[in-house]
């Protein structure tokens, strides 16, 4: 008689879902503590550089490939009004501030719509020129990191296909190619695209394979692959614009204790490309998010597990979801509440905000209610500049309660909620809707676009 149950499991057997290659480490609790103790040490810029080989700047080889006629580089030019920043090794990185092509995030638009809405609202307030068209695809990183069934050709083809669309999109408005520069919303896309760019630049074989694919799609420039000079994350734009954003601040947040969760896919993937600013945390930690929160006057409070992943991790959010949930509570939310007495946790990536925000119920289910509002830096910045907490920031989409935070900020959330409910009734009755962006400009199409009238 078999000992297996109907699901093919032996009673007491631990099911991981990771496949036959997965093996338990069989570490004791003490051994596991030793193995991970380095995370709780002081991890700063110097420790990331110590005893590590200095990598080459991939852009040097990129320029040579263009000189050799292998590729075309989409440059950040003066028309994009770039701000120069410094990265981990002190290299220059250009951050375009206007004429931006929004590379949206599937997770933001589906789970946290106030995230991109807040970013567009800030750009409107600052009179930034941008294009928020619909002609893009997912980055496929979910496929690759989450399931392991993706391949490098598909990742590279989608990366270059999207950035080619950013390059040619302005032609539908009668402008020259390259007028808009892509701004990536999702931290996973950001890290994934940077890794894939390196693979493309270092591998002639990969370039040849992807070139064949994009040629069939009509996505080459003069018969060559188009490579971006910089891969830019929205949080980098927020960082270089932080002083201009703070000039529009209308809400005092000096009594707010904020903790920062830096996203793994933003600053641990291709770390040499990430902004370190001497004016933020002494240049010892990644500058994005912390910079804007400090500029707005909130108190940025340190906590021991700041370096830890949020718990999302891609693979185990699918196969070990309870690990994700418990990790998010025990290693991040609990520590921020108990150790830092945090009023809000600020992040800059889709998966992190979703994980830390929407899994707090698991602590409550276990009798440990560590309620902590989780917001993106763009959402908090927009809120401080007067954006509506429900129309724009859309806090009602969040699982973690924000009412106590609003009260501490002096925001009458009950009145704002009533305004929002009245607005929804107006829409339901067929009344006018507020628009952050002219919906007629959202569709330009790819190589087969139909020209539309140029708008100012």
From TrEMBL:
Coiled coil: none annotated. Residues 1-28 are annotated as: Disordered. Residues 259-357 form the Cysteine-rich domain. InterPro entries: Cys_rich_dom, HdrB/HdrD_reductase. The keyword Lipid metabolism does not apply. It comes from the Bacteria. Pfam families: CCG. Keywords: Oxidoreductase. The keyword ATP-binding does not apply. PANTHER family: COB--COM HETERODISULFIDE REDUCTASE SUBUNIT B 1 (PTHR42947). This is Heterodisulfide reductase-related iron-sulfur binding cluster. It comes from Hyphobacterium lacteum.
């Amino acid at each position: 008689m078999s000992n297996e149950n109907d699901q093919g499991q032996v009673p007491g057997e631990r099911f991981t879902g990771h496949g036959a290659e997965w093996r338990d480490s069989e570490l004791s609790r003490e051994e596991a503590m030793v193995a991970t103790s380095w995370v709780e040490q002081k991890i700063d810029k110097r420790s990331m550089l110590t005893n590590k080989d200095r990598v080459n700047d991939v852009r040097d080889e990129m320029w040579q490939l263009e000189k050799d006629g292998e590729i075309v580089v989409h440059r950040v030019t003066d028309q994009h009004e770039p701000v120069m920043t410094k990265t981990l090794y002190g290299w220059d990185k250009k951050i375009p501030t206007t004429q931006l092509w929004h590379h949206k995030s599937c997770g933001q638009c589906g789970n946290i719509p106030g995230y991109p809405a807040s970013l567009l609202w800030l750009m409107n307030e600052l009179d930034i020129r941008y294009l928020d068209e619909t002609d893009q695809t997912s980055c496929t990183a979910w496929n690759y990191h989450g399931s392991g069934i993706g391949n490098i050709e598909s990742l590279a083809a989608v990366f270059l296909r999207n950035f080619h669309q950013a390059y040619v999109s302005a032609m539908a408005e009668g402008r020259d190619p390259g007028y808009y520069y892509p701004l990536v919303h999702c931290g996973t896309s950001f890290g994934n695209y940077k890794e894939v760019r390196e693979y493309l630049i270092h591998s002639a074989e990969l370039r040849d394979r992807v070139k064949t694919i994009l040629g069939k799609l009509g996505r080459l420039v003069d018969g060559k692959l188009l490579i971006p000079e910089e891969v830019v994350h929205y949080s980098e734009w927020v960082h270089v614009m932080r002083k201009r954003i703070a000039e529009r601040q209308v809400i005092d947040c000096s009594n707010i204790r904020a903790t920062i969760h830096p996203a793994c896919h933003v600053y641990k993937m291709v770390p040499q490309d990430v902004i370190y600013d001497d004016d933020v945390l002494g240049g010892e930690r990644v500058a994005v998010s912390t910079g804007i929160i400090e500029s707005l006057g909130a108190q940025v409070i340190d906590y021991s597990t700041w370096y830890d992943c949020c718990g999302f991790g891609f693979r185990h959010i699918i196969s070990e979801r309870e690990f994700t949930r418990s990790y998010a509570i025990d290693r991040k939310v609990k520590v921020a509440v108990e150790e830092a007495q945090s009023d809000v946790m600020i992040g800059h990536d889709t998966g992190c905000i979703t994980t830390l925000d929407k899994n707090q119920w698991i602590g409550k289910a276990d009798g440990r209610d560590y309620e902590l509002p989780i917001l993106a830096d763009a959402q908090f910045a927009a809120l401080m500049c007067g954006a509506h907490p429900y129309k724009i920031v859309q806090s009602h989409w969040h699982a973690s309660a924000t009412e106590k935070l609003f009260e501490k900020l002096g925001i009458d959330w009950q009145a704002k909620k009533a305004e929002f409910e009245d607005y929804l009734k107006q829409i339901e009755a067929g009344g006018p809707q507020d628009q952050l962006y002219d919906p007629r400009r959202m569709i330009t199409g790819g190589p087969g676009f139909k020209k539309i009238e140029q708008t100012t």
